[in-house]
Amino acid sequence: MSGLLSQSMTMCLQSSFIPMETIEQISDEIIQCRLCPRLVEWRERIGSEKRRAFANEEYWARPVPYFGDPNALHLIVGLAPAAHGANRTGRMFTGDRSGDWLFAALFRAGVANQPTSVQRGDGLTLSGVLMAATCHCAPPDNKPSLDELRECNRYLTRILSNRDWKSVLCLGSIAWNNVHRTLGIRIEKFGHGAVHQPTNRPRLVASYHPSQQNTFTGKLTEPMLDAAIAQWLVG
Ligand code: SF4
Asked: Which residues contact 39 (CB under 8 A, 6 or more apart)?
């Protein structure tokens, strides 16, 4: 698959910016996707059982599509929707603590128009930035299986080859490794703030994922996240 992708990437990179398909087209397919039985069962069960605090809300309970500027040249790749976050609200990083951290940082960097992301329709917009994921469905324990990651790689492949991205911010080692594999390049060592500029490929920047596990423990601080975002937005 990486050979095919490399060919497709090369064709894309050699041409000027002419997206092969629109973000909306890929998003529409993602929303309908039911390829991973375990994740379909999980996302829908979470959506019907709900968390008590959200008992009166209608959960999205489907794959979560891209979010951001359809003309973006800077891409963020996260891991997967949170069960009661994006799986509830239907928008990436929306309605949970990870999103609180990430959107506040994007606001400080000047690419989000507000620092909070509560629900679809809250007025949040991104400028020059699009959000994607390695897995578009909420997985149990936030851990997609290798087979599920492989299955969902069809969408990561399509978004990475969609245009000449300037840079990709990879949130966590799974995103970092998968983006390298999908681009068909040797995987560089993951570490917060790592930067990899492969030939004829977007610049890759690594950040610890803004999960509560990292932010509550101080493994990821606001200055650290701001520094990674600044690296990602260079150029
Ligand atoms: S994880 Fe990806 S491939 Fe699997 S059902 Fe969800 S959208 Fe489809």
From this structure: 135, 137, 138, 139, 144, 148
Domain count of the chain?
1
Range of the domain at 170: 2-233
Closest to 176 measured CA to CA, from 220, 207, 210: 207
Which one, of 213, 207, 206, 203, lies nearest residue 225 by Cα?
207
Q: Confidence band (pLDDT; 50, 70, 90) for 20?
A: confident
pLDDT tens for each residue of 155-171: 999 999 999 999 999 99
What is d(CA 190, CA 180) in angstroms, rounded to the nearest whole number?
11
Q: Which residues line ligand 1 (CB under 6 A)?
A: 30, 33-36, 39-40, 63, 135-137, 148, 151-152
Confidence of residue 16 (pLDDT cuts 50, 70, 90): very low
Quote the CA–CA distance of 98 and 109 in Å, as a whole number: 17
Q: From atom 4 of ligand 1, which residue's Cα is the shortest distance away?
A: 36
Q: Mutation test of ligand 1: which of 35, 41, 145 has the most ligand atoms closer than 8 Å to its C-beta?
A: 35
How many angstroms separate the alpha carbon of residue 136 from the centre of ligand 1? 6
Q: What is the CATH number of the domain that holds 160?
A: 3.40.470.10
From atom 8 of ligand 1, which residue's Cα is the shortest distance away?
Answer: 33
Q: Which of 33, 147, 149 to mutate to test the pocket of ligand 1 (most atoms within 8 A of CB)?
A: 33
Type of residue at 42:
W
SS3 102: helix
Identify whether the C-beta of residue 129 lies closer than 8 Å to the C-beta of residue 68: yes
